[in-house]
Amino acid sequence: MTQLDWLTLLKENVRDAHSKRPSDKFIESNDFRNSFKKDFDQIVSWSSFRRLQDKAQVFPLEEGDFSRTRLTHSIEVMSTAESLGEHLVNVIIEYEYKHLKRKKTSYHKSPFLYPYQWIDEDLYNSIQNIPMILRSAALLHDLGNPPFGHVSEGTISKWFEENGKRYVVVEKDGCFELKKASEQPPTKDILFLENAVTRPYYKDFKNFDGNAETLRIIRKLQNLSPNTFKQHIKISYPTIASIIKYPDDYIKVNGLKHGPNYFRSEKDFYKSIQNKLGTNGYRHPLAFLLEAADDISYYASDLEDAMQKNLIDIEDLLQLIMFKDPEKNALIKKFLTTDEIIEIKKLYNKDDLKNVVASIKEFIKVESKNVAIKKSCSRIRGYFISRVKKEISNNYTKMMNCTYYGNLLEKSDAEFLQRLLKILFTKFIYYSDDIVKKKTLGIRSINTLLDNLIPSLINSYNKKPTDDYNFVVSKMVSKNFYDLCMKRIERIKSTPKILYELIFLAIDYISGMTDTYAENIAKNLK
């Protein structure tokens, strides 16, 4: 059984192998920021972070400015994650005092810290960084998501699933030509696109994941210049580990069907993080907290956005939360099937929800509709946070000895409300007419971009700039992304890996687009 250790989990300066930059010697002598504060300061200035301001959280291509974007969602996650992190610090201190009874090998001299003089000083100083690490991880966690919301992940995967055998790759004199299989049947030397890349590598495209794309952004894309190819903008390993939601061991034990949160191109990077922090395929404990903060934020925030759009009425929500006589209640039966009622009835705890119910009733009674909605969602957020904190306290030892494999929110006392909202979101929000219509536009845009960029990038490789495909690439693709990709390809001699990098260049560029930019570019390509 793996036993995790905070001094290893929170190693401050564990970063990329190329740890020194030429400019390091010019750092100001009075810059006392630690690695984790520097992580935060770097992330907020990244172009990939700024672009979240025009990426949809739930409602893509909105004409109004009320609904959340990925940026505002990330800020809300940051706030919740920091609160959970502060609670975890107190849990660790209490655990150390009650269970470990460490020897007094070092003491805090400050009178302010007198109550904790018994705790190991290095451990105490180290865990104080937890809230800051979670703040940075919250800002990172959605960077890899493509425009138009989660529907685009499936769209990208489906494109490669459908086109792996629709195209063949013809290679000659170090150049490639992508042709339709109907025009150029495959032979011994001419392979389907999927086989030319090789299926293990092509699997990354068929199972595209925004979380795995985030690792690519950190490792390969968010770079100042191709001239500093080996000097990546560096984020500390504990911060990165906090966003790895599905590491290998967690997937294996839970029997999850999707792949881990890394592509083959980042496999060594992922293993390095796991080895240096001692997690060995298991989740970093802070990943549980970030996941919970993400869940809490989208349940509370998406609910507010939906009620403001009249997709769900606040009075109906109240009646559903009260869950009175569910088998006979016409309103409840309007929203839930008989099987759903049976499923969540066993989770219902009237006493646990009585304060939430009383608060919402009061808001409806004394406030305007908009204010009542806002306050009710805030109250639900507070309820979720309190129950997740309790779950952290009750399962801290399991998290540290790698025997906790659940979702903190889903396994908490708030499971009934979480399941109820999940059902409502699936039925009445995510597939509402307005969202479906706009997501359809997003799907068309993504497909149009892939249809044009994949052939252009493959067919222009190693060809003269006057070539038509090269012209398309030079006018569309980010020069920085393109130059970085060519730098990586310079070190590659394998045809499958070259194709892999060229295809990922298209995916990287599309994933980084905002909703508006992707839509506009796609319109110009039609």
Which keywords apply here?
526 residues; Hypothetical protein af1432; 3 domains; 3-stranded antiparallel β-sheet; 25 helices; 3 strands; 3% strand
Task: Write up this protein.
This protein is mainly α. The protein folds into three domains: 6-23 and 30-146 and 210-273, Hypothetical protein af1432, CATH 1.10.3210; 151-202 and 438-525, no CATH class; 312-428, no CATH class. Helices cover 60% and strands 3% of the residues. The protein contains 25 helices and three strands. The protein has helices at 6-9, 35-43, 47-50, 70-100, 121-127, 130-140, 151-163, 193-197, 199-206, 210-221, 237-241, 248-254, 267-277, 285-308, 314-322, 330-335, 338-345, 350-366, 369-400, 415-428, 433-460, 468-476, 479-490, 495-511, 515-525; strands at 167-172, 175-180, 191-192. It is globular, with a radius of gyration of 25 Å.
| CATH class annotation of the largest domain | Mainly Alpha
- Give me the CATH superfamily of the largest domain: Hypothetical protein af1432
CATH architecture grouping of the largest domain: Orthogonal Bundle
Number of self-contained structural domains:
3
**Integer average pLDDT:** 85
* Helix vs. strand class: mainly alpha
Strand content: under 5%
Largest sheet: 3 strands, antiparallel
The helix fraction, in percent, is 55-70%
Radius of gyration of CA atoms, rounded to a whole number: 25 Å
Strand runs, count: 3
CATH topology of the largest domain: Hypothetical protein af1432
Largest beta sheet: what is the strand line-up?
Answer: 2-1-3
Principal-axis shape equals globular
Taking pLDDT < 50 over at least 5 consecutive residues as the criterion, the unreliable ranges are 16-20, 102-108
Number of helices: 25
Q: Report the span from N to C terminus.
A: 56 Å
Query: N-to-C SSE series?
Result: HHHHHHHEEEHHHHHHHHHHHHHHHHHH
